[in-house]
Each structure stands twice: as C-alpha cells, then as structure tokens.
Amino acid sequence: MKKKSIHIIGGGVYGCLLAYQFSKNKLFEVSLIESSNRLLSSLDKIPLGNFYVNNGFHGIEIPRAQKLFEFFNKKLNIKFKKHENIRKLLIDRIIIDSQDKIKSWPDKIQRFFKKKKNETYKNQKVDFFFKKEMADLIKLNSRRFSSNFKNSKNQFLPYFLPANINHLSLDEGDKFRNEVRQKKIKPYFALPVGLIFSKFQKPMKKFLKKRGVNIIFNTRANFKNNELNYTRGNKNLFKLKNKADSLFYCSSSALMLKDIDSKKIGKLSETKRFFYNYLVKIDEKIDNDFSELLSINKKIPFVNRITNLRYFNKDLYKKNFLQIELFLEDSNKILKINQKLILELKKIFNLKKNPIVIDYLHSRTTFLPDENWIQESTKQCKSWVKKNQKNLYSRYLFYPINLSKAWLYAEKDYKDYVKNNFNR
Predict the structure, then answer these.
(1) Domains in the chain with CATH codes
(2) What is the pLDDT of residue 242?
(3) What is the predicted pLDDT for the residue at 234?
(4) In terms of Cα–Cα distance, which of 41, 36, 43, 44 is closest to 216?
C-alpha cells in the first residue's frame, strides 16, 4: 500500500505531538511545516536580570497529564522534578488556600459570599455567588483581559469560588481541577531540572527526525486567493503544495482568518493586551509555601499570577524570587505600574523594606475576542476549507491550548483520522 502523505502545519506542542502520533504508523509519510526556524517556539525562554525564565508559568500537571509527562521523560530523555502544586488565592491582601471550603475563609472575605447549601457552578453570573463588593472587585480585575466581562469571566470562576462549590463540566481540565479543590486528587507540577521548558526544543527536533518526520522550517501556509500555498519569504513552494494527501492545521486559526478576511481579524485589536513578566526579589523571610498565587486586588488589578520560583528551585534562587505575570491595556503606563506593584507587594507580604524589581519584559501580546466573534470566525474558516481545501483538518483554535490539551487533541485527532479513513 502506498504511504499517505500527511502535512502538519504548525510546529508548536500540538503539531509536534500530532507528528509523533502519525510517525508511529508506517502507512504515513509525515511532514511538519513550521513558519519559524525552530519547534516549540511557545516554550521559548526569556531573560530577566541574570536569570532565564519561562514566558509565563509553565508546568505539566500530574496526574492529569501523566502520558505527556512520560513522553517527555522517556522519549525525549528530559529529567524532571515533581513539586506539589500548592495553589493559593490572593484576594486583595489576604491569601487563601484554593482547597479551602467557605467555612475556612477569613471572616473579612467570607462575608462577601452569598452562602448557599449544596451549590454547584454551572456558568452562573458572578453575583450569583458574591455580594456587590466582591463582584465589583472581580469585574475590576477582569479588565486586564478584556473590557467586556463576559469574555473574561471564566478566568475567575470557578477559580475564586470556595472548594465546597462543585464545578459541573465535561471538560477534562475542569474535572481535574474540581477534584483537586475537593481534595480527591493530590496535584503535582512536573518541571524540567532548571525549570526552563525551552530545553524541550532540540530534543523534540532530534526525536522527530529520527522517527522519519520531514521537518520544514521558515515556511508558511497561506490561504489567499481561494487556495492554499506554501511560501518561504516571497517564494511560492509549488512542489511542496502538491505533495499532501491530507493536511492538519495546528496553528492559530487567527492566522488562517488573516488571509481569508483581513478586515475581520482587524477587529481583534480592540481586545489587545500587553503581557509582561516581572522578576521581583524579596530579601526578607516570607511565607513561601506556595507554588502560585492567583490574584484579584484593588491596587494592582493588572496582576494575574505570582509564581514562587524559590519553591521550585532553592539551589538556584537563594532569595525569595517572584515571577509576576501581568496584563496592561496601555504599555505607556509601565513606570506608574512599577511603583504600585512594589508598594502593594510590600503590604501583601508584610515587609519592612520595599521588594526589588530586578527586571521586566513585554514578552507577548494577547487577544481575548468574544464568543460571537469566535463562532462567526470559525464558521467562516470552516466554510473556506469546505469549499477550497477539503483535505484539510483543523480544530479551529483561536485560543492557545495548554500542554495537557495538546496531548489529548493530538492523540484523538490521529485515532479519528485512522478510524475514518482505514476502518471502513
């Protein structure tokens, strides 16, 4: 039987894992097509001070992503350390364990909660659970993601609900987090020794090449003029275009839409946010028994997450180093942000001296469109594919996906393809 030629467009985590799945089957000849000069560019490290850190927090959740962990560990020979995931909530200046039930919340915060017996979270509005003061605090913080609260509500609920609220959802990530909050599962993060996830890039390239995957860099898929073409610089690669029996589009669908309808993609600029990583040093002793703090705060509503780097590596981080991720609507306000951040951290951790901002970096730009925009855009992309490129498969992803989802999607997409094309 002649081998089927599979083109996988996008060398991110999802694309690489899908290439791996297809490479296990001798019926397929696999090409992985990446627009940059390296695989797994989303895992690039960034410099802050004298350190390199991940671009935002990265971690493999155990046992949720056990198969993915074993793949990186056994196939790529990446050495890991497991750390208990001690996630806490920062509500103004009060730190709460994310696994605490309402009865354990401090009275100051507990009084903002509308107590209900045997309640479940089924996508209710924030004021279903919280009184006005707390609901307003959440809405204030939501502006770091979007000016429209409907777009960003899921960034806060159910994360800032007490653990006695049962989250009803079919999503595997939601189920896992719900069981963690209810202490049915003890969660861990697996991080590579040294913490930096960019060390996956070269081993992944070497591994896929060894399995026979043809990796093509600096090549972009274009969807202009009602046809798909591959380009490198200004050059069209016509020979490459005609080789594929089937194509899997694993990049952001925003890139597809950009070619199909540039006016529609332009509307995304209304939701643009500037993502910053900060490295802050605290010389005094603090309660550092946490892996991460998810934050809602009146003074620094732009702060999303505080990661305790010393918790993960005491040998590298002799002092208390915090990696702080924040989102800004206006990057010109960064100097004012610095002062607010220093003063509020001092009060949160009850410090005698000001913490020190070692360095900060605008490391990416993010967008959070509303559901109607996503539905319309998905429909438009699907219609283009149905009419012009019927052998192309896509999940039509406009949001980035985490490591756990990347593995599950790749595994399912491979199995579905084989089932639909060979088991008839």
Answers:
(1) 4-56+197-252+400-422 (3.50.50.60), 86-186 (no CATH), 273-366 (3.90.660.50)
(2) 73
(3) 83
(4) 36
